[in-house]
């Protein structure tokens, strides 16, 4: 995607001057970024630079961390997600999250996916629910592998399958945005390749933000990249430009493997 394409796309998320403090320690300084619809945006940078902290701001997961204080503004389709009258449970259905370690519930494959639609009242009856479960598993590229064992525990699947189950679980509640925090770091190269292909398919219908330690992965799966360093967003732009022609010296050093 070149910068012109960015202008053609709807901006789904806008962050302005976002700061995060953990107690007295400031972890993020004035982060401003626009995240476009139907594209993958990668957050890269050395360990501890604040990638995950910023990702967690986007669906208010930092609310669950004691002592964390978020400042600035984040809007989803123009709506302030930190507005006091916003329903956080609803927000987390619209902005789903997939974690580093696959974390299926200790329930059947079917119930893992049906859980969200049940609590959000998305299915009128059992056949509606069946349809949501099957279509979510299909979209996550898992249905064919599990269709004969939907009642077996989700935890009995391989790591890569569990991660796709978690993606199906996020998809089942009809999100607009999917946040992924190093979704492949616990997976082998083959399972990683499957998830990367899946991310590439999902971007046709979702806004995806991925935190990754792997620059190769960012280059393979994303159209936009943002480079973080010591709590600052140093540089952002089309992935190709960030990797081939970074403007900032710190970005250059990171890309060249000189920091991090
Ligand atoms: N719950 C917390 N309490 C206190 N400090 C925290 C907490 N979570 C993160 N931090 C601090 O905030 C800073 C940013 O951490 P964060 O995990 O967001 O970075 P990261 O870039 O995602 O790192 P990594 O790549 O290692 O996961 C770090 O200095 C970290 O120690």
From TrEMBL:
* InterPro entries, A to Z: AAA+_ATPase, ABC_transporter-like_ATP-bd, ABC_transporter-like_CS, P-loop_NTPase, PstB-like
- What this protein is called in its record is Phosphate ABC transporter ATP-binding protein
Q: Which residues form the signal peptide?
A: none
Where the record annotates domain ABC transporter, the positions are: 13-255
A molecular function (GO) term: phosphate transmembrane transporter activity
Q: What SMART domains does the record tag this protein with?
A: AAA
Entry keyword ATP-binding: yes
* Record key words, sorted: ATP-binding, Nucleotide-binding, Phosphate transport, Transport
Please provide, in alphabetical order, the Gene Ontology terms of the cellular component aspect for this entry. membrane
Task: Please name the Gene3D superfamilies in this protein's record.
Answer: P-loop containing nucleotide triphosphate hydrolases
Q: Does the keyword Nucleotide-binding apply?
A: yes
So what family is this one in? Belongs to the ABC transporter superfamily.
Instruction: Give an example GO biological process.
Output: phosphate ion transmembrane transport
């Amino acid at each position: 995607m070149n910068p012109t394409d960015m202008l053609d796309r709807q901006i789904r998320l806008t962050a302005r001057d976002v700061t995060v403090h953990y107690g007295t320690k400031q972890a993020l300084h004035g982060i401003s970024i626009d995240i476009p619809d139907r594209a993958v945006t990668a957050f890269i940078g050395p360990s501890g630079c604040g990638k995950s902290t910023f990702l967690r701001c986007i669906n208010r997961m930092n609310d669950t961390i004691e002592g964390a204080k978020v400042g600035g503004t984040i809007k989803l389709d123009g709506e302030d997600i930190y507005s006091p009258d916003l329903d956080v449970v609803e927000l987390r259905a619209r902005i789903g999250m997939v974690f580093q370690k696959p974390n299926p519930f200790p329930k059947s494959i079917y119930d893992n996916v049906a859980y969200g639609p049940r609590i959000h009242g998305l299915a009128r009856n059992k056949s509606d629910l069946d349809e949501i479960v099957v279509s979510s598993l299909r979209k996550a590229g898992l249905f064919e592998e599990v269709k004969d064992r939907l009642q077996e525990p989700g935890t009995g699947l391989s790591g890569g399958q569990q991660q796709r189950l978690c993606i199906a679980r996020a998809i089942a509640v009809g999100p607009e945005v999917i946040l992924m925090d190093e979704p492949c770091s616990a997976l082998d190269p083959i399972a990683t390749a499957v998830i990367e292909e899946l991310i590439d398919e999902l971007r046709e219908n979702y806004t995806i933000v991925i935190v990754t330690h792997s620059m190769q992965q960012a280059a393979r799966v994303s159209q936009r990249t943002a480079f973080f360093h010591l709590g600052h967003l140093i540089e952002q732009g089309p992935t190709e430009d960030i990797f081939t022609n970074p403007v900032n010296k710190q970005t250059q050093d990171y890309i060249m493997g000189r920091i991090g």
